[in-house]
Specification:
By secondary structure, the chain is α+β, with helices and mostly antiparallel strands. Helix content is about 45%, strand content about 5%. Strands 1-2-4-3 form a four-stranded antiparallel beta sheet. The two termini are about 30 Å apart.
Length: about 260
């Protein structure tokens, strides 16, 4: 924002001849400003990477980073021409929201007399540890097709395979999603560890790829021990390293 303001100021000054620039000098300044802007956007803060704020988002109900939102709209319009109506089921998710999901599931599993370790393992079959969700980045979306009769449970594998209610959508995405920058995150590779197959979860690679690299620099243990997270004392450095290798990094190779 501050660089854009500086750029606008220079343009105004040049227009009114309050300062003298050669055209070459002016272009060099704008090029440097452009590079500074690009650099600053590529270096996301820890707050942004862990869903605790400091991230500019576009959209109303389903929020995404602006570039991701615009790319999604283009893909959505293209699909509509093929009679596929794509709808977002989940987009940006804050740390607080992920923590609510985690704590609710943890308490439910403990009430079923699972051990804390068993409860955590059951949660991470599909749900992330708060602070580690790709949905924190404003780059990832869970998608469905807008059909006449939606199933009671939207995000289940059976809806997307064989003749499931979203199978036409999935076939269209298999053929077209990468043209618009969106890649399936948790594919059906039988050798892949971590989260189970999610045929609904897509990521905008241009932004999520550098964000993943920045995310890996964060001290997650310090973060998780500082918040009100159920069972956090069982999330040890050894456990977290295994979780990072399998749940965070064992994804579609095209996104690494």
């Amino acid at each position: 924002m501050k660089f854009q303001l500086l750029e606008n100021t220079i343009q105004c000054l040049k227009k009114y001849q309050m300062i003298k620039f050669s055209s070459t000098t002016f272009l060099i300044i704008l090029l440097l400003l452009s590079r500074i802007n690009t650099f600053s956007q590529a270096n996301y803060s820890e707050l942004a990477l862990t869903g605790r704020g400091d991230l500019e988002l576009a959209g109303t109900q389903d929020k995404l980073q602006k570039e991701v939102f615009e790319a999604f709209k283009k893909m959505q319009q293209a699909a509509l021409k093929d009679s596929i109506s794509i709808k977002i089921a989940s987009a940006y998710r804050s740390f607080d929201r992920q923590q609510e999901i985690w704590n609710r599931k943890y308490e439910a599993y403990i009430s079923e007399e699972l051990t804390p370790q068993e409860a955590i393992e059951k949660i991470i079959a599909y749900s992330t540890i708060p602070g580690t969700s790709r949905h924190h980045w404003g780059t990832d979306i869970d998608l469905i097709e807008e059909v006449i009769k939606l199933p009671e449970r939207l995000l289940t594998e059976e809806n997307y395979i064989n003749n499931g209610v979203f199978s036409n959508f999935k076939r269209w995405m298999d053929k077209n999603s990468e043209k618009y920058g969106f890649y399936l995150v948790y594919n059906d590779d039988v050798d892949r560890k971590g989260f189970k197959y999610e045929p609904w979860h897509y990521s905008y690679k241009k932004l999520s790829h550098p964000m993943l690299k920045e995310f890996l620099k964060i001290d997650l243990i310090a973060l998780l021990q500082s918040v009100n997270l159920k069972g956090n004392k069982y999330i040890t450095p050894v456990f977290l390293q295994k979780y990072t290798n399998e749940n965070v990094l064992d994804i579609n190779p095209k996104l690494k």
